[in-house]
Specification:
The complex is a heterodimer.
Chain A (H helix, E strand, L loop, with lengths): L12 H27 L4 H8 L2 H34 L5 H8 L1 H4 L2 H12 L6 H4 L10 H26 L2 H9 L4 H30 L4 H4 L10 H10 L3 H32 L9
Helix pairs in contact in A: 1-13, 3-8, 3-10, 6-8, 8-10, 9-10, 10-13, 12-13
Chain B lengths: L2 H17 L7 E7 L4 H19 L3 E6 L3 H9 L6 E3 L3 H11 L11 H4 L2 E10 L19 E2 L7 H15 L6 H13 L8 H9 L6 E5 H11 L4 E4 L3 E5 L3 E3 L1 H7 L2 H11 L2 H9 L3 E2 L7 H4 L6 E3 L1 H5 L2 H9 L4 H7 L1
Parallel strand pairs in B: 1-2, 1-3, 5-6, 8-11
Antiparallel strand pairs in B: 3-9, 4-6, 4-7, 4-8, 4-10
Helix pairs in contact in B: 2-12, 3-4, 6-7, 7-16
Classes of the chains: A mainly alpha, B alpha/beta.
Chain lengths: ~280, ~325
């Protein structure tokens, strides 16, 4: 953004910024503004009573906690997947590459029902897990699995192009200069990947916080134990309590926005401090 | 902002708005209903269309919309132009009247039998042979029994389940509010999964194989047994249960505006006619006038002692507030 005063070959700053603002207003700001406006009909005390009810607070812990955990798991395993896909040639590689995007395309309800069928006590996996004392479906663990499922593509797809651009010569140079494998990964590869990894993490997290369709089938929805925050919103709506629903939505929006801002600034910081000879700054 | 930008945006708005203005000339009725009535109205609509054609010479097309009762009511509140609504409980219809004023608040007095042309009750669906020996509500809280019911906060059907259980406890010898609350608290400790809707709960019980007993609408229970095989499930009728009244009404303001007031009223009246009552009974809904339905269909309904929400709880408005609104009895069960 610091280069905004330099001469440009192609004109169109006003036009594109105008479209950006108009488009953002219509698609994002207007509906979100309506949420805040509706909530504003509550007094501060009423707002606080709604959003700090014990049952609602329990859902924040589950929703945000599990979303962060799911994003973290996806960051680790998404990176491994991307690595395998970029660095190695193996039969069926293109098939696996295409499979990664499936959680994007699948209606979330289908994912939820499929996962529940798999992990319920009469399911393919559940029948072996339950005797071990591991209950997945209808427990918070089930929520985590659903969120890992829907968030997977984000990390893979953000890290993959960066990995593709990363020359193996860098690693070879590091090795020839005497770096161990871990040192090569930690000091040569990771700094380049970190910004993309954080973006993937942020996207997977944001997606998980708002997820309803898949989670609702596998969560079991027991109050204080396995209810997610979006379900609280639906619950309020079922009581025709529109303002109560928007109040909880406001909390979700503000917390999500704060966390995303934090992750994005972290990403910007790693991008500037970890910049290497590849010349990328995404 | 530059003026060309504003002009461009305005143009886009006008363009979008011009699509919304198209109007229809033929007579159509939109019936906004809830999930388990899909098959019933699929049967009923063509018969009504034929009846109306014979009577007036007019062609009428009936469109159906199905979903969770509360969700459907919100759609109507938010502007879905329903000529008639046929929902799972009066509370949802009350909400439409209160929020939109599109029909009078005393709508439920306009048609016979609390505006419910058919009713149902809450019964138990158990696994074949009834391995846990479940006969009545009291058996649901025995050690080791798992009960499947959807969440009363998000499902209209689940509210009927809850109230049926409450009414049972209240009517036991020495029963009172405190004992009923203790019973309900105990009952929900036996519920491992709270699905958000009735169909979800049925799936959990039937497909996932979870739980020993499913609390269900009688018509849903019979359908499950028929579709999935009498060799897998059986219906148990408790000693006493609630009359679940899914009411119907014309949305006056919409029908008047669309010029469908007459046909909409006839549509609902036809539900009470011999033809309508026969169809209801065929789909396991208890007809308001059983004498009009097919005797063999009526004979399928087990005799059961019942109570009503008006009689035992003083109507939906009061019940909703005391039990299901935030901070009500259902919330207290889980949060103390």
């Amino acid at each position: 953004m610091s280069a905004s005063r330099t001469f440009r070959v192609l004109p169109g700053f006003r036009l594109t910024l105008g479209y950006t603002l108009a488009y953002l207003s219509l698609i994002v700001l207007l509906p979100l503004g309506a949420v805040f406006l509706k909530t504003a009909t509550l007094s501060l005390a009423e707002f606080w009573t709604v959003v700090s009810a014990p049952r609602v607070v329990a859902t924040y812990k589950l929703s945000f906690g599990m979303s962060l955990a799911a994003a973290a798991i996806n960051a680790v395993f998404g990176l491994m997947l991307a690595w395998a896909l970029v660095r190695y040639a193996f039969p069926g590689k293109h098939l696996i590459d295409a499979l990664i995007d499936l959680p994007f395309a699948l209606p979330t309800a289908v994912a939820g029902i499929a996962l529940t069928a798999l992990y319920a006590k009469n399911g393919w996996l559940g029948q072996y897990l339950e005797p071990q004392g591991i209950q997945v479906a209808f427990r918070p663990l089930g929520v985590l699995i659903a969120l890992v499922f829907i968030g997977l593509p984000f990390v893979v797809r953000t890290v993959q192009p960066i990995l593709e651009d990363l020359d193996t010569e860098l690693e070879e140079a590091a090795a020839s200069l005497g770096a161990h494998r871990w040192q090569t990964f930690r000091h040569v590869i990771l700094p380049v990947l970190l910004p993309a990894l954080l973006t993937g993490f942020a996207l997977a997290f944001a997606r998980a916080v708002g997820e309803y369709g898949s989670v609702i089938f596998i969560a079991g929805n027991i109050p204080m134990v396995s209810e997610i925050t979006p379900l609280m919103i639906i619950t309020k709506l079922e009581q025709y309590d529109y303002t109560g629903a928007t109040a909880i939505a406001v909390v979700m929006l503000v917390v999500s926005f704060a966390l995303l801002l934090l992750i994005n600034s972290l990403q910007a910081w790693t991008a500037s401090s970890g910049k290497t000879g590849t010349g990328r700054d995404r | 902002m530059s003026s060309s930008l504003i002009r461009g945006s305005l143009l886009a708005f006008t363009f979008a708005a011009s699509f919304a203005g198209a109007a229809h000339a033929e007579t159509t009725l939109l019936n906004v209903s809830y999930d388990p009535t899909r098959e019933l109205y699929q049967d009923f609509n063509p018969q009504f269309a034929k009846y109306w054609k014979d009577k007036t010479g007019q062609d009428v097309t009936i469109k159906q919309s199905h979903g969770g009762s509360g969700k459907q009511a919100r759609a109507v509140i938010d502007g879905l132009e329903a000529d008639v609504v046929t929902l799972a409980l009066a509370y949802d219809v009350d909400a439409i009247a209160a929020k939109t004023g599109k029909f009078p608040a005393d709508w439920q007095k306009r048609l016979a039998n609390n505006s419910s042309p058919y009713t149902s009750t809450i019964v138990f669906l158990v696994r074949k042979g009834n391995p846990k020996g479940i006969k009545d509500w009291g058996d649901l809280v025995k050690p080791g029994v798992e009960v499947i019911t959807p969440n009363p906060k998000t499902s209209g059907g689940a509210r009927w389940n809850y109230l049926a259980a409450w009414g049972y406890a209240l009517q036991q010898p020495g029963g009172n509010e405190a004992k009923a609350k203790a019973f309900i608290t105990d009952l929900f400790k036996h519920v491992p999964v709270l699905d958000s809707g009735a169909r979800g709960a049925t799936n959990t019980f039937v497909q996932r194989g979870i739980g020993d007993v499913l609390l269900a609408w009688e018509n849903e229970a019979f359908l499950s047994v028929n579709e999935l095989g009498p060799d897998k499930f059986e219906v148990v009728v408790p000693s006493v249960t609630i009359v679940a009244e899914p009411p119907v009404t014309v949305v006056d303001a919409v029908a008047t505006k669309r010029g469908t007031a007459e046909v909409a009223k006839a549509y609902l009246d036809y539900l009470y006619s011999p033809a309508g009552q026969k169809i209801a009974a065929r789909h396991y809904c208890r007809p308001a006038k059983p004498e009009l339905a097919d005797p063999t269909d009526v004979a399928r309904f087990p005799k059961v002692k019942t109570f009503t929400i008006d009689g035992l709880f003083g109507g939906w408005a009061k019940t909703q507030k005391a039990h299901f609104d935030d901070g009500g009895v259902f919330d207290q069960i889980f949060t103390k």
